[in-house]
Fold each of these.
Amino acid sequence: MSAIEIFQIWIAAFFTLALFSFLYRDNPCYRLAEHVFAGLSAGYEVGLIWNSVIIQQMIDPMFTGGEWWLVFPGLLGVLMFARFTRDYHWVSRIPLAFVMGTTAGIFLLSELHGKVLPQVQSTMRSVNPSEGIGGVVLSLLIIVGVISTLIYFYFSKEHKGVLGGVAKLGIWFIMVSFGAHFGYTVMARISLLIGRVQFLIYDWGDTFTRIFS
Amino acid sequence: MTFAKFVFWLLVCTWLVPASVFGDTIVPVVDSTSPNRFQDTSSGSVTAGAGAASEVSPGGGNIPAFRTQRINALVLVLVFSILVLVYTRWAKKGKNLFIRKINGLDAIEEAVGRATEMGKPVLFIPGIQELDNIQTIAGISILGRVARITARYETPLRVPVPYPMVLAAGQEVVEQAYIAEGKAEVYNKDIVRYVAGEQFAFTATVNGMMIRERPATNIYMGAFFAESLLLAETGNAAGSIQIAGTAEAAQLPFFIAACDYTLMGEELYAASAYLSREPLLLGGLKGQDWVKILLVIAMIIGVTLVSLGWGDWYLSLFESV
Amino acid sequence: MQAWLIIAYGLLIVAGVALLVFAFRTGDRRYLYLAVLLFVVFPVVIVLKFPTEISPETQLLYDAVEKLPDSSNVLLTFDYYASTLAETEPMSRATLRHLFRKDCRVLTMTTIPLGGPSIAERVTREIAAEMGKVYGVDYVNLGYKANYVAVLKGMGSSIEAIYPTDNSGTPLAKLPMMSRIKNYADISFIIAIADNDIVSYWISIVRAQYGTPVGTGVTAVSAPQYYAYVGAGQLTGMLGGMKGAAEYEALVGHPDRATKGMTAQSLVHLFIIFSVVAGNVIFLIQKRRAGAGGQA
Amino acid sequence: MKTTVPVIIAFLAGLVMVLAFFFDPEKSFVGRLEPEVLRWVTIVGGFTLLLGVVSIIRVNYGGVHRRSSGWGYKLATVVSVFAMAIPAMLPTRMSPLFGNGPGSIYDWLFNNIDAPMMSTMFAMLAFYIASAAFRAFRARSPEATLLLVTAVLVMLWRVPMGEAMLKGIHHSLPEYINTYIMGGANLAVQRGIIIGAALGAAAMSLRIMLGIERTYMGN
């Protein structure tokens, strides 16, 4: 293990411990780690966007690929800075509207086509007794669960009477699902912590033996 | 735009214009198996993508390059748009539309009031995604409504955002809200501020903010992932009232566990309409409800047909390629 | 089991219960944090080994590797981010040990841009040093290339076209091992270790279109969705989460981090369940008392 | 003008995406326009990043300049931004330390400081999930009890010791949990939420495209 490797492990160990210390209380070490973390990740974003967007998707295609029209999205981006002016403040809404409109157009169809259709389709399951008792129970559970959950979200009527009953069933289903999901996730989170603790004990701990031997 | 105009334009644009102007059959068939294309499909199914590409050509009839196998999506979009717009139009005419109470949303005004009394800030987080996610846009719309309330009471507002376009949109929305309430002089450019573009760096900063400034109210509206519980637990420890809303089904259990109120799934999208009390926006919710009923009916028909063994043709109507 | 181990773990449990009582009494969640920390650190330092029952999916992967002719060419992927190292890295280490022991030639690659290549370098070099293997002869790290679908498909015709050089910039032509590996046809087995959906691409592109058998190691969260593939024979074996990794370590006969982590994982998990149940019992007792008080 | 132009632009941008969905990506004009529009969005976003940098520098440098409380931390943020961003923006041909490839300063800072901190924040969830479970899973009402019971059952099922215990109660109990709770009730609810949310998102998209919802312009 070289000196530089030991140094790297110590840096990582310091920031790891500094962040963990927040669990006890806010303190200068956490504050330092938090501020460095924020700065680095903003810088990371700048480096990423500069290299993968500005250079690779705009400058390179413009100058080496001859795609001169990419100057327009560039100008559209510049309009964003109109917000710093007094009279043409509203112009910055144009790039925003462009981005929001595109997002809306994509989601209108990706949600209806990519989510609603396949999810509705796979809910149409057979409840024919030939599926066996287990199969029928499972199908019924899914069909009733989907429908009652959808009804729970129905906005147009007060949840009373039959509607109220179905919505109540919906909330029971929702609770079972949330409990299951929560319980299922616990283990994965624990293994993340084990990973950090193993880093501290094995890797960082190892550097002590190297230093003192 | 009125409903009739919309349908007219939709028809013109989806059928006639492309058919006569844009659809060119001159371009030779490009190798449809080029791998780059699959990256863009959100379905994640590689084979489906390949199948879709090769099935295209002649089925389109006289409309070149139209993907006939997506006609079911077109029907769904049309039915959906018509229902939403019919109700929007009725709402505009002044028809009284009933919308049931949504607890989490009624709590917002109360929670802001509490912050005002305590003289502490309201913290609003419009999710951790960029403006290219519709949940972020929903979050930004809700921010506009919340900013009106904070402007009215002159309650301090903090909006840390993880991405620059959300920053731009957020600043615009908040500034306009303060102007609309006649409180332009209270507005400050740093209400909405950019904080670290990475999920966990953002979380670390916001957590620090929560413990140091102890906001009276935390509102989370938008797309959240693993950081949902990190934020909500810290807010809970800091003693803030917390209201969350997200359409990420996987994060709902954690918000439910740590927040006082949670808007689930579509309630997030309904929130901006609900808070605005504008009939125009509320009308849309009614239309949406109708589609829901139609889908439930469609499912029941489907289950019956499939159980009787006659369902294959019916299921194929819902095929998404 | 030695007596002192029993005493040590007995004390640990007593401490856990005591912290839980404090947490309940004071409402201060930091007692709980401390208990969780204790239950994670303790088993990592003082190892207590539970017998491991090998699941059929793990056995399937082990057998598939075991049946490979000696000196086969195998592709091992490092498709995971640094955040899931605890589950995935032990899988890489255990499979790598097994492959090297069988004198397989190991080719590694990653579809994760940041972190992926350096994890692959670190792990392979460490295990290679341990087993006396030589870079370029026994193993090669290809590193990362963008656009994974194109990469996965392109390697079917020519690996060199996608990766002209290895991760450190050496042309593949200069690495002796690569003279015998041109594309998937020269690779006998693929082990994809991943914390994301990439495994389904290894199945649908590589297994389905080129016929090379694929085995996998995935995180516990995503494991359930891959059982169906194992059942259908599209995946030749699977390691699920830290448990799968621990099982493989047991099979290879070299217990490592996963085996040590498993005890911690089970203990913390059981502690959380216990704390929830105990919290409710106390809550119900208090409620009953308050109820009785109210009526009197 | 101030609202009409943005509304029209939003409508047209959305329309391109809607049309592109129905037409062949290579054989139609809109189909080929789609990736171009998406690239434009990316580039606009790239330019906007400068706004973000201005914001983070103003908030932090302002504090340093005024020597307000905690200005030292704010200085750390400013220094970190530049330490990461500037070498990454310089071309690699000047020095292998520049750019964002392996061996660059950018790569080193990411692997040795950023990545460990990301993993650590992620790992803190273990503590939070324990305390959230302890506090929230109480049998306060019938609904909360349902949540509690399923959570405990599923948690038991996930560890070998717990699974053995469940098997002791009924030999196929673990299998039932997998089939009927995870693959039944849980799947059904996720599906219901996904369908409902998709309808909500589609309605929201429609409102934006048609200029009914224009909060982003202050209306």
Amino acid sequence: MTSRNIRKLVRTGLAVLAVVPMLALAACSANGASTTPNAAPSDGVLTIGLLGDIGQPPDPDVYYANNGLAIVLNTYEGLVQYKNDVDTVEIAPRLAESWTVSPDFTTYTFTLKSGVTFHDGTPFTSAAVKSSLQRRVDVDGGAAYMAAGVASVETPDDLTAVVTLSEPNSAFLDYLASPFGPKMVSPTGLAANAGSDNAQTYLQTHDLGTGPYELSAVEPGAKYTLTQYDDYWGTKSPFTTVELPIYSDVSSLQLAFDKGDVSAIVAALPSSSLDKYDGNPAFNSDMLPTLQSALVTVNPSKPFFAEKEARMAFMQSIDQKKLVDQVLGARSEPATTLYAKGMISDGSDKQNIEYDPSVMADYAKTLPEGTPMVVGYASGNTNAEQMANIVTANLQTTGIKATAQSYPTSQVFGWANDPTQGPDAFIDGNNGPDGGNPYMWGHVFWDKTGGINYFLCDDPSTDADLNQAVKTGDEALFAKAAQTYSATGCYLNLSYNKDWVVSQKWLDGVAESHNIGANELDFSLLSIAK
Amino acid sequence: MTDVATVRDLEVSLVRDGVRSDVLRGIDLSVRSGEILGMVGESGSGKSVLALAMMGLLPTSAQPRVGGTVGIGDTDMVNGRPDELRAVRRNELGVIFQDPMTSLNPTMRVGAQIDESTHDSAESLRLMTAVGIADAALRFTVYPHELSGGLRQRIMAAIAVAGRPSLIIADEPTTALDVTVQAQVLDLLRELRDEFGCSVVLITHDLAVAAQIADRVAVMYAGRIAELGPTEEIIHRPTHPYTVGLLRSRLSLDTPRDRRLLTLRPETASAAERLKGCAYHSRCPLAVEQCGVEQPPLAPAAEGTAEVSSTEHVRACWRSVSDVQGYTHDTLDAPPIAAAPSSGASDATQPAVLITGLTTVFTLKGGGRRRRQVHALRGIDLSVAAGEAVSIVGESGSGKSTLLRVIAGLAPATTGRVQLAGRGAQMVFQDAGSSLTPWLTVGDILRERLRPLKLDRAATARRIGDSLEAIGLPETVSTLRPAQLSGGQRQRVALTRATIIPPSVLLCDEPTSALDASLAASVLNLIRELRSSLDMTVLFVTHDLAVARLMGDRVVVMTQGTIVESGEADAVIRHPEHEYTRSLLASVPEIGVLS
Amino acid sequence: MTALPEVGTRRFRMPAASLGAHAGTRLSVAILVALGILTLVALFARLLAPYDPVQPIGALNLAPGAEGHPLGTDSIGRDILSRTLIGVQVSWFSSLIIVASGLVIGGLIGVAAGVFGGWVDAALMRFTDLFLALPGTLVAIAIVAALGYNLQNTLIGIAVVWWPYYARIIRGEVKSFAARPHVEAARVAGASRTRIVFRHIVPGVVPTAIVTASLDIGNVVLLLAGLSFLGLGQPAPAPELGADTARNLSQLLSEWWVPVIPGLAVLVLSLLSNLGGDAVRTLLAKRR
Amino acid sequence: MFRFILRRTGSAVVLLLVLSAIIFVLQAVSPGDPVKAYLGANASPEAIAAKREELGLNAPLYAQYLRFIANLLHGDLGQSFRTHRPVLTDLQSFLPATLELVLFSFVVAVLLGVLFAVSGSLRLKGGALFRGPLLLLAAAPPFLLALGGIVLFYAQLGVLPASGRGVDSSSPTGFVVLDSIITGQPDAIGLTFQHLLLPGVVLAIAPAIAIGRILRSSLDVTMSADYVRTAESKGLTPFAVLRRHVVRNSIGPGLSMAGLQLGFMFAGVVVVEQIFSWPGIGNYLAGSIPVSDFPAIAGVTLVLGTVYIVTNAVVDILQVAADPRLAA
């Protein structure tokens, strides 16, 4: 009798075994998502889905990551910003109506917008510029360097601020325009909530900016809520509230979006979803220009790439166009320059590494059969993983025992301490400078003190040229620096990446609210389609 | 005179480890109101199953198949609806099970457990007093593990009589208890009957126990009633060979010490052929071929005479009453055993066992800090001459087993010393089954004993074969595991292990208490023979005075860790000096010898 | 007489067979055969796998049933069948290693404690209880996080927290057997101490140990999958069921088979091993 | 009884100390450059050096250890490299959500487990139809189960929410159910339970089986005990027998297994929270692992460990309460 039970039980078991695939099928049917658009919200609430918590607090002088930038950029404003909806680097006014730069790039004079008030009611004046720049230095966060060069800030009158740098810097305007750049923070608010840490605690859950929205609720790990600032000086969107709920799993984020529970997702969906949304009549799908790139860097500290010849051969063995097209598809285009697109106006930073597998093939012959070689990528970055795998697959045809390997981010940043710990080469799926000035690119990627020069592949003359060029703003010199570094074979600019924004059909102004520097939308410029 | 319970051709078959077997095969009997009916039978005779069947509590796990009827009141306990059965159990039945420890809920205060039947604490208290529990109010709120065995059984009794049942079923109520307590419990049952006027079904393996208080006795064999009649009749004029056998193999205080103990013929037939005819035929000294083919019906014993008495005494046997009784009258004499030689030759210079001022204290580690000291032995002085046989009698907790264990080196001596002669001591344990390593074959077990001799394979095998033969086991046994042997065989194996290299002293710790009377007798015979043939000193621990008298030249009575009396066996039995010995004797269930 | 287990051991009664106390013998055997096959598959996964599991060999994201790729390919164009096979190998043997390590370490400690008793027992069991009282999985995570993320460290991490469970059970069993009359009988019969331990006690403990272990494998399979889901397992691109599911989870809605198939493999593994555990118990129970 | 409670509490404290020691050792050996992770990629070397100094990462090991213990005593678990907040603050904001989920799920698990055991032990009709599926689901990897649930109940049927807790989790106590009850908002209560349901059940299934199995076996043992037969002989109804005689004597192993499972649940919650975007400590841990945010990982381990150790102490005490023989 018992053993009859068993059989019954096993039968039911098998029956249920069918459930899981069924769920899977349900999933795949969910894939052919509804092609009928979701209705626009009537309560003036805009919902932007975040993938994972923003991590650091939304304090303009602390926050130094991408995911939560939208909160900072919609609650705070800088003096200038990058021009919206163009794919070149152009500085546009924000809180400063106009500015003049001394020829030697040491004195910057700003004429401020009038009638601007902070969310705590304090009027925005030149004093705020001084205090804000000072706080940036005091807090000493990751992007403190942007204000580090400021020697003094004179405030001849409320609407004029004169910033003097300790040494010439042609990139200073870009610092200010950068999404990570200094933002204007209410001096009175700061004073009131200074605490022992320059109000850092206070700003974890509040804001003291002038932006179109106020940070009204913080539910760590769950949701951030912005409400429209009634006295905002600029245009206002129909969205009185913006909610940014956190989804820690991309699938549930997508499902929520499909059901219309989420209005838009900014640069958070995997390429695998491209064909689902691209050209789906129910949704908008925008590819917006950025300064981000996919990069290939090699590790000269490893025997395999000790020789420049090897490095060059490797770079040439990469079929840039095919790789970018196959993996990143519509999300990016093959990079033709060494800097980000449009940084050097005359394009003299052209990347001269031509695809030619034969070079590597020949070089490989000189190596012992099955020489090992590891191409690394940051764990969790699917695009990089794909590219790394394709690259290694090609290398193997030359007899090199190439393998792709993932590394957690913390480890990646650790290599700089001892490059021999790293892989032979590294593919960075998406990375970029803080701003649009060539220096900001060259410095971080090429100078061994820059921070993202993972393997410390360094060329002194490049560093020197960069440091010189930034003083004079000499584009030709920037181009020269780039070319000399490129010649080391340590570096390949793989692709210009774009931000992929999917949004509900009813949402208008996505492209207009986005600029090349910020990988985020200015919610005040969004609207509901008629 | 109405019957409180009537069982009509009850048939029960149960599945035991995967095998279905007929446990009860057509039981007919009725329990009269106010009587005490004794159900007697060896283990496996189905008497306990009968009890469960009467309560309608056959274990579902054994997937019982039941035929016939059990009528209690006007409910059929076999086919009745569950709620009806519950009603009967609530109102008509009371039960006392064998082991009062496991039969009471350990996590429930005893009072509450009685209340479950009385639904009234006052009543419960009254009952507790009624069953002879002193200061009931105090005991009302304790947990079972805080009570002595006797008191626990009294609690069971209180539960049983709660709700004034018309019938109390007592399943081996005394087996787990000491002799003195046994007597009390039996008295209690009688009192209950007298006071509450209920009937009692007393199930026991010991004819004597039944004889003490039962009005009628039913002797069961292999799931059938062999003989049923008034106690007097059964005891003194048995009309069934099996009953006769039981009576004669039963050990009493006046069983001749110098003769082999009488035993029933061991079972030889397979289960299948046993069940063809009279289940007893293969062991029956009086069997005729009819017995092997046809089941004898239950018929009046008094041959055709007075119809009245015919219902009184019934029997299931093809042989005539006179044949059987004739048989009982001849062959009283059993072959004498070789008189233990050495007891005379106890001029041996130094004794086999010399114990001086032995005390043993155990520290029981109750959980946590709390430690309890138990004085198991409080100063024992004992000297056993070489070749002598000494029985140590006592109740549980008297320290008799501890003494043996100390001698065997299994328990520590706190003070004092134990000296053993030359070849040291070997021990036979109470439960032979568990004293044999389950996963080793008999061969392995015996070989282990022989290791010191460093014999080669062949020699070892021969030695093992021989000693098995000697003890009456086929050589093939050596390839079997203990689980594949019968109880008697296991005890024999244990004996072989102890004696395959003859020790100076053989220690026996109640080796027969777990066996049926007849089997026990045969094992005792064996030990006595071994003793004389191997010239061993024997220390025999038992709670049964009759056994003690038979096994020991000398009997030593122990209680609370001290020796209170010691002397030549019959002397101690006939003229006890210490009053504890007397109380022991008084409580030994006795039945007159066969006239 | 239901003996009452001491405070420490009571936590670890053997769980009842989930398939009713006595699953049919034939069924049990069938299950064990299935497990045997599984193990063989795992053993020869390299041979059975049609392709190199880490090399892209086909078009991207082919659906199951595609030409030459019965289970399709993943986002990198690797053959999912091959990856799953190797993944099964990794997960299965990893689980076995963990359980084995628990059995060995725990066994040694348990037997030692049970046999020597006294202060040795006390000391060893204090130590064991200490580990037992810590939240094993979390400690394991912390350990891996500290040692660095890779399969080896994950195994170490789990092994460190896995043995006390076995030490407890085995020690309890040893003690109960040591208290059995047959051990005393052997002592009287003059068997040496080691002989008593290894012939009269340990053999009795083995069945319990085996059943406990076999019932445990399923848990380990799931735990491993869970940890590699969190990124504590094999670093990519090495195939590992949990990790493969986790990494490709983003494809659930576009190419469901990529994450679901390895996930299903985990399900089958743990289900089979659960049933296997019960089967082992049933058969041993029958033998007793 | 009292003395037992005392002793049990004592041992709990010892365990906590040990746990903290283990954590430190691990912290000491953990690799990766936290400071880079802390300041972000483009941070200047100067800033990095400064930070190392500030975090005392340059100090010798023993100094760091003393620092660690001292901080611990002040309830300072260090600062998260990722969130830049004190780990304690993070935990305070995330713990309630997790506790709520786990406790709810624990209740579900116990209920399912008891159902599993009883239906099996009493051979209830159709019990197998309930146990079979449960067994199978228990064998499924939780993340698959969770996503299956979301796809089915949220995307397809649209009957249950798939993420978050439904209401503002930065509410007074953080226990939203509690709060909504206190503040008496029936709709809020309903909402929170809706959100609890899916993750709660997913998390509960595996423990339910574990508890159910243990309970089943001890039930079977107890059912065949003599005193149960005695109880039946009193003519008690099966239910009465179960309630008065079986439960209490068979609950022990179930209880301790439940305690054990609670520990596993606190680990399993990491996966579940991640998929259900539950703003809890598990999600926090999952976020900390990829960036080797060790202070966070250590903090989580410490706090959950504490919860676990405490609950188990409670379980043991309950058990003694259930079975007087265990008292000592």
